[in-house]
Amino acid sequence: MRTKLGSVLAATVLATGLGVAMAPGASAADNCWADGDGIRSWCHNVSGAPVYGYIGNNHIYPDPTKVVGYMYSNPSWFYCKLDGQAWVGGPHPTRWLLTVADNGKLGYMKDTAIYSETDPVRNC
Asked: What is the residue range of the signal peptide feature (predicted)?
């Protein structure tokens, strides 16, 4: 009985180890890609991510306290990216991307809500 149990456990550990070793890494995200006219870029994003408004009447400053809508589509399109804004963390810690939420409101999505690499998105 011990020999059979030991063999089953060894096989399970080996199979589990191979599955972990062969799993793709999180860094395998694809780049965002431009549409035909070059005005918008498409990126894979978190479904249901909030889209934030902007400060005052100036569209160049995202307001991290004001949610104007949500993005349930994936992939989604973005006009451009802004760096040097409010802290969001991740590989681009101060990057926000201008888009339109599913409810039609203009706003910004945090870079951390986007799976694709956002470097190819044009600057605002």
From this structure: 1-28
